[in-house]
Fold:
Amino acid sequence: MPPFSQRAFDEDKARLLSQAEEYGLHRDREFMDDLHGFLDRVHTNGIWLNQGHAPRPDWAGDQVHRLVDRFERKHAFHVPARWWKEHKDDPTFRQDRRAKAEEARRHGWVWMKTEPYHPAAAAEAQGGLILEESVPGKLFDGKGFGGENWSSLPALSTLWERFAVHFASGLEGEPEAMVLDGIVQNSVLTQLEWPHLRDRIETGRIDRLRINVMRLTGSPSDSRRWSLELADSYDVHSQGSFDRVGAPTDPDFWANQQRWHHRQRANHAGDSPDRASAGSSGGYSLHDFHEIFDDPNLLVTLSDPATGDPVLTASPEQISHLVSAHLSRTQSHDSPGAGTGPSGAPEPPAALRREGSAMATLDRKLEAIRAERERRGSHSTSSGSVVPLVRAARSYTPYDPAAPQAGQSRTPSTASAGSDDGVPLTRAARVPSDPPPRQSPPDRRRRGR
Structure:
């Protein structure tokens, strides 16, 4: 499989341009020119990857900075996307937009390892926002544009870095942060956002950064019932007070954070595209399947509904291969003794029939998804009859009529005054003209918080 997917790029580009129209951005010809220029640059990055070149930071080009500047001129980093969409056609939108940005930037939140939903809700309650709830955040969040991961396309990873810097640099008043268990080094907060917030404290633009340290509560064996609660708060005024917040000390921190990450993604898979804190309802589309099943690094965990413990972890392809073998053995009443699972670990014979049933259930769901995708075509975005399949994709657990299904998918963490002239929303991609740069070790920067 090539490192860059043209199909995935085309799908994300189409979604982005459709969203741009929803926010009225298509009426600004200069903005759209720079947006298309950035997309062309991302596409060029992908072509170079497929030609075998290693990614370099200078692949980003100056298209990133031009696009970020366009967003900045519109105050887009500090205006909630939902408000923007509701008021974009008001006769006083430009003046009101500036006033809304001035209000929201005084109640901005940043976050680290908690996932965006809780800080988004906290910020909204104060009249503020997080980066992912701004217009730039909504346009680009959740889109990989055909890359295998965030480090694959330097133009995209650089864009998110600039987004974080511009968001933090524009905050005023008393911004807050929500972090899980403490401060993690080499995160977006420590590397990008905090240095700019510290500068604003030193120059008197903001009074302090309040860091809310959250902890997970609930049974360690059942992430379905986990929740966040406030453990402590720190008012940070300097690098010294920032460092005194401390780092997570739980030896299981990373494992639990990943479980929380996957659980939150599953719980919010059907959220409204304009509200990270909304409940899971509506908004389903075929794109949800691509997000879940098209990642070559995806793993599916089948968990026991009674205990929440994992029964089997494998990729959809591995599970597909294992289903036939397991079912043939169970249907023939074979007693093979101890076998091995996909990781090579011993597999007790007592679990064989249960795992075979679990995988048969999942295999039927995967087959239904594949059939639906073939029927609709890879570029379909209709949502009607695929809703049940999305719900099925979010509940791949061993079949148990007496217990509710629960499960989780595991994907690598990945890391938010022009004219009103109309401009077409589609345009042929340019053929890259500048020569691919020399090969060098890949850039491993990620967007993950």
Notes: The chain has 15 helices and nine strands. Strands lie at 109-112, 176-180, 209-217, 227-236, 299-303, 310-314, 339-340, 346-347, 407-410. The chain has a mean pLDDT of 75.
